Each structure stands twice: as C-alpha cells, then as structure tokens.
Amino acid sequence: MRYISTRGSAPVLDFEAATLAGLASDGGLYLPDAWPTMTRDEIAALAGLSYVDTAVAVMAPFVGDAMTREELKALCDQAYGRFSHAAVVPLVQLDHDQWLLELFHGPTLAFKDVALQLLGLFFERFLAGTDKRLTIVGATSGDTGSAAIDAVAGREGIDIFMLHPVGRISDVQRRQMTTVLSPNVYNIAIEGSFDDAQALVKAMFNDRAFSTKFALSAVNSINWARLMAQVVYFFYAAVRLGAPDREVAFAVPTGNFGDVFAGYVAARMGLPVAKLVVATNVNDILHRALSTGDYSKGGVQQTPTPSMDIQVSSNFERLLFDLGDRDGAALATQMAGFESSGAMRLTNAQSEGAAALFQSDRVDLDDMTLAMRWAHEHAGQVIDPHTAIGLAAALRLDVPAGVPIVTLATAHPAKFGDAVERATGVRPSLPTRVGDLFDREERYATLPATFDAITAYITERARPSA
Fold first, then answer.
1. How much is the pTM?
2. DSSP H helical segments within 179-269, as ranges?
C-alpha cells in the first residue's frame, strides 16, 4: 500500500512512513493511492466476528507489508483490551429506526480512544530498536488531546506537546490532559481558538528547519493511521444491522471532518452506506459547503459542544481531493486560495460527488437540547451534547423504510455534565476509573497563540531526533 499527498508533490510513502510523518511535506494530507475494496462475501463474513477480528480484516489492506496480520491482531488486542465494554463499541437501540453506536468506552471516555490507543502502539512498534525520537505536536478541541496523551504517556522515544484553547473546553476534558504528569507530556493552553491551535500545528510541520530538527508527527486526524482505525466501526455496526444485505445510514456529529470521512472510506471500500449525515452545530462551515458549495470561514462561536467549535475542517481536504479526480496540483491551488482568503467555492465535480453520499444539517442549541431530552424520555438514554447534535440530524433524516440510522455517540455524557443536567435534569457521574479526576494535580503552560512563543517552548523541552 502506497500513500500519496492531497497536494501532489510530497514523497510517496508506505504505511509506516506515513504514520510517522503525519502531515505531508507539501502541506497536504496522506491517503492511499487507491481504495482497497471488500466484496459482498467478505463483508458478510464479518458477521459474528469480534471487534478485534473485524479491525484486522478491515485494516490489513491499508497496513500492507508494514506488519503481518498476526502482529496487527496483537496490537489490536492490546489497544482494545483497555476498553470497559466487551463489545468495544456497542450498539444501543433507541426506537424502530434509530440506533446509537457508543464509542466512549475507552480510557478517556471519547471516540478518539478507538484510534489513538492503536496509534500509540503503532508509534512504539515503528520506533522500537531504533535511535529515533518522535515529537508529537497536536491541537485539540477537547477529546483528541486526552486520548493521545493517554496513548503515549510514558512511552519510550516519544514526547508529546498538546495545544488546547484556554477556557474553551470542558473541565473534564482539560483535566484528563493536564493531570497526566508523565515527563514526556506537555500541555499548552493557548490564548486563542482551536482553529488558531490547528493553524500553529500546521505551521510547525511546514517549517522545515523546525520539523526536521524534532522529527514531528501528528495525532490529529491529519494522521492517516488514525482515520484508518475509525473506518472499522462503520463496518462493525453496519454488519450487525444487516449489511451487506441492507443499507445503513450514519449521522456523525462533525467538526474536523475526520470521523465522517472514515465513513466515506468505508463506503468506498464497498460497505452499503445509504447516507452519511454531516451534523454541525452553529459553526456550520461544513453544512454551508455541502449544501451550497460555499466553504468560507466565519467567526467561531462558543457552544456547549466545544469539540465542534471549528471553522477550518482539515480533513475536508481529503474529500475534495478524492472527488476532484485526485488532481493534487489543482487541489493545492484551490487550498492556497482558501488559506489566503478564508473562502473557497467547491467545483461542480466536488459538489455533485459529495451530494451522492453526504447530507448535512445545522443543529442549533434548542434542537440539541430537544434531542437530549428525547433520548432520555423516550429511550432511557443520557447522551452528551455532541451526540445530541448527531441525533437531532438523524431524527430529521428522510431515508427509505427499513434503513436503520446509526448516530455515533462520541463522548460519555459525564464529560459535559453541566450541559446534560440543564437539558435533562440528570447529572451523569464519571465512571469509577476516573472518579478522582478533580482531586488530581494539574500541570500546564499558558502561552500566546504565536508561532514564536510555541516553538520556543517546545525547543526548550523536546529532545531532538537522532
């Protein structure tokens, strides 16, 4: 399996090199040079398999010869053995048509664990027996940071620097990062938005002197290996609901477009996906792009769904590349225009290609609250605000009779206890394994959102690559 950049001029890499690199050297994102496919019989054969065995079957074509299936299975056993539910990602029925896929049973109570527990093990395996060091830099709107830190804390050969927007994530999200006191973990609260943090991370990757000195790598969904791991649960859920003999629709609460792009990959591999619903909050750049072709930044509004308070969805570039006949030079020009002006029009091919599979919906605060109440009153389920954005869109989705609709439940409700309690009157409790979170010591730095300030901080603390 070979990996190419969306912008067309970076070196072609294998799975190991693409995983360690994260962002491509031309500023683009890596993805496979061709989509592997699964036949109806191969998809049907997933019925009854464990999550680990499903993961091996789905991911093996992407991994290629970077490791054997047995080695991949051993890493999956280790990663998913830390989840608190035997099914890893259990399905919960809400009514005749509506389902939840619970993705929050990992150690940090969010869907990011599904990919990042595995990514941390990939990093460790690829560095083993070498004198290489990896410096991970990431930006988080809430859950990526804690999941990435948990996955790599204490691992040999790795330092991690995680940026989060000060005051714009929940207390639980912040503490899950800042109470990890391993010597290779550094948390940085920046005085800005998530988009500012994400832009700083991209700037560090694109600064050749800095990125080569420290062998930078990424844990955000710009890293292909993370998206690959997320493809698995679309197959796992769909097969349990009748695939390949019936289509399944998915509603995905979306900020950075990574999770829903994983669903697109599953469809490209042959999974019968009726519709992928891109559910945004009022920070609706993706809804505007998919419904009108207008991909233009606006101001970021703070909401009870901080992981979705984003106006630049980095993974959208992968979709535009795939729908634009994989013309890296054309996309590089298109993205350069967006990066300089903050505005871009999708081409006809991009808009029409997206419309064949995607539907978008903008969910405001009132509809989010109503969805939380509906889940609690009609199905006995307490859900977090992000999941409620997806569910609100799912409840409005018009699909043919008999097509189940799966909302991705992306975080444990206790991570957003105040918002859940306001909507439902119920105060969700943290699981006992993290019940002492508010008694733990915190450690983090607060810095201005400038390239010089952040790189100076990292330079003083990171250990250069060998």
1. 0.93
2. 194-206, 208-214, 224-240, 258-268
